[in-house]
From TrEMBL:
Transmembrane segments: none annotated. It catalyses: GTP + H2O = 7,8-dihydroneopterin 3'-triphosphate + formate + H(+). It holds the Pfam family GTP_cyclohydroI. Pathway: Cofactor biosynthesis; 7,8-dihydroneopterin triphosphate biosynthesis; 7,8-dihydroneopterin triphosphate from GTP: step 1/1. It comes from the Bacteria. PROSITE patterns: GTP_CYCLOHYDROL_1_1. The keyword GTP-binding applies. This is GTP cyclohydrolase 1. Belongs to the GTP cyclohydrolase I family. PANTHER family: GTP CYCLOHYDROLASE 1, GTP CYCLOHYDROLASE I.
Length: 187
């Protein structure tokens, strides 16, 4: 559960730390605004994707389901700056499919918390394997990290691509090739 009072106190300390005047008109509501914002952008804290992935439907219709270009925003846990981009998810059903929106909801659960990209990629793949129990899962995330663009090494436009493969995707390279074809040219 997010402690908004604590966040407000911390924001006051940070503003003091950078030499700001806490009584300045423009900053009056800033601690409260940031606490409200953190409640929203860290709403995945303590959540599991289980509640989204437990409602399944029987289906023998498809060898592979791909949901691509799922836009997400997350926060780099090292610098507390945004990283954002697209997630692509594929799974091979084992007689059961899940509502399409639930794949995007799963991405949200793991994006809305302090994160690193590789861990988010693995968590999405693992939660699908655990709760949907498909024959295989593949997740690819491509993102731009603001900690690499507006500060530090300052390389705007550079993108980080991460992949997690589980089940049949780990055993069969052809499935991986099909996934890349379906997702499009991301080379
Ligand atoms: N693997 C990985 N690294 C990340 C991610 N987000 C940020 N980083 C990196 O985390 C590293 C933290 O490095 P440190 O040397 O501890 O911190 P720093 O001095 O601020 O590093 P610079 O960004 O190089 O200035 C940096 O190299 C970031 O690019 C991520 O999602 N995955
Ligand atoms: Zn960072």
């Amino acid at each position: 559960m997010i402690d908004k009072k604590k966040i407000e106190e911390a924001v006051c300390l940070m503003l003091e730390g950078i030499g700001e005047d806490l009584d300045r008109e423009g900053l009056k509501d800033t601690p409260k605004r940031i606490a409200n914002m953190y409640e929203e952008i860290f709403s995945g804290m303590g959540q599991s994707a289980q509640k989204h992935l437990s409602k399944t439907f029987p289906s023998e219709g498809s060898d592979m389901v791909v949901e691509k270009d799922i836009v997400f925003y997350s926060m780099c846990e090292h610098h507390f700056m945004p990283f954002y981009g697209k997630a692509h998810i594929a799974y091979i059903p084992d007689g059961q499919v899940v509502g399409l929106s639930k794949l995007a909801r799963t991405v949200e659960v793991y994006a809305k918390r302090p994160q690193i990209q590789e861990q988010m990629t693995a968590q999405i793949a693992d939660s699908l394997m655990e709760h949907l129990k498909p024959k295989g899962v593949m997740v690819m995330i491509e993102a731009e990290h603001m900690c690499m663009t507006m500060r530090g090494v300052k390389k705007p436009g550079s993108r980080t691509v991460s992949v997690a493969k589980r089940g049949e995707f780990s055993e069969n390279d052809k499935l991986e090739t099909t996934f890349f074809h379906m997702v499009g040219n991301h080379g």
